[in-house]
């Protein structure tokens, strides 16, 4: 990851921009510990970039400037390039400078493969362009001060009299620097038809008029065409193992093969596109065999599939870190014993699934890193974590942010011996629950609708009841998918990147998303089989096909409960007291 920052002064008073940058510079530098620098443009625009080097045979300094452009880029571009040794930032800049107008720029950014956030100043046009990728995988905040000044940043900070929001990943925005004192200075070229979130943020919260200029993009989504239906396949199945039944169906088998092939490609990109140095050896650029890529590992199905696929692309001489976090249990009014029980649900599941990985890949060294966090340690870092979670403010965001921050820090033990992870890339299972139907609310939507229709109709109309239930499930899946960018991806990016680590999300690869989203709800879940089987059923079938017979039937458990960070006495939606000004 990198840290990017831009401050736009409405007048020539630049001191506010410098102060704002200083308030968040340390957080930006944490994201990019390998290099950082600032640039001014026309005494009104302050740019700052920090770099965490991954791609190219040498580090690309940021901000990067030519006679035509100034660019700061945070992300990973996974497009095939003619020169494999070229930095993705330099590659992008060359493509940008070949674009004669904003429409070509729009098509360039819309066609990028991989997560990104970007700030671009085009000198000839006197414009600043900025954007997040359409799935919102990387953080970018937008702030508007009472003075009329604006800033765009990967992270927040102590910004007095400033309204700050996560930038909706709705498209490519641009600001005319000649119009910074006008109310309608921002234009949006949208990726999608629905710009409601962006219009509400700028129009309602920031009182900035947003001009929307639409342009059609070519549809290039990958799709699966298959007619199978889990209800028809399994309703009358009496076998003890539904996976055996499913994988006897040629259509199901074909879909699993397609999903696994695309996910394997995504894991390969996200595992191999990095520099050949670990975090410790980066400064001296010393070749080493320390772990460079790891995974946030609860032992659940999502991360276990990724771990097994990672084994194919990490050299056999290099270990893979499995980072497993546990928190001391909240004890209200109870005298704490000297011995803390770290066997939280995710620790137990993680150890069990580790055994399955060792059975399937006995020649791989798996570093199961037990990261144990006391309540005292949590409270010591809570304010700092809350600053990273900002502008999100509730208890759930804080709890999940803390779990991810400590896990990605990687300070723990292996077999009782102290260990600190040297990984610069961590894979996450983010997106799998939204894509495949892993949340309890998906099950609830299905079962509630099924029950209502069965109560109204005769038994002969059972098929109609199931169709209605799958329709309700499909609507819930679509709703969750639309909310994903605003719920957790940017937050997770801010929290994890603070440890000088890049989070990568293989389930959120463009082709893989296209495949899964083309499946009907009845081809993703079958809740009558119960939790641990019926939810995310097609993904579980993929896991079973890979040999993960134990992990394929593990129940979904939310991170805040599996790691035991959550206090069940608190309401997840309550505003966190640590986030008060």
Written description of the protein model:
The chain is α+β, with helices and mostly antiparallel strands. It folds into 2 domains: 2-208, Aminohydrolase, N-terminal nucleophile (Ntn) domain (Glutamine Phosphoribosylpyrophosphate, subunit 1, domain 1), CATH 3.60.20; 230-330 and 338-563, Rossmann fold, CATH 3.40.50. The protein contains 17 helices and 20 strands. It has helices at 15-31, 88-96, 102-110, 196-205, 230-234, 242-247, 250-272, 301-310, 345-360, 375-389, 395-409, 432-436, 440-456, 462-497, 510-517, 537-546, 559-562, and strands spanning 3-8, 35-41, 45-51, 64-65, 69-75, 116-122, 127-132, 141-145, 150-153, 162-166, 171-176, 186-190, 210-212, 293-296, 320-327, 366-373, 411-414, 417-420, 425-427, 502-504. The strands form 4 sheets. The protein has a 7-stranded mixed sheet, sandwiched between helices. Strands 2-3-1-9-8-10 form a 6-stranded antiparallel sheet, covered by helices on one side. It has a 5-stranded parallel sheet with strand order 16-15-14-19-20. Helix 10 (375-389) packs across helix 11. The longest helix has 36 residues, at 462-497. Residues 2-178 form the Glutamine amidotransferase type-2 domain. One of its GO terms (molecular function) is asparagine synthase (glutamine-hydrolyzing) activity. Keywords: Amino-acid biosynthesis, Asparagine biosynthesis, Glutamine amidotransferase. InterPro entries: Asn_synthase (IPR001962), Asn_synthetase_domain (IPR051857), GATase_2_dom (IPR017932), Ntn_hydrolases_N (IPR029055), Rossmann-like_a/b/a_fold (IPR014729). Pfam families: Asn_synthase, GATase_7.
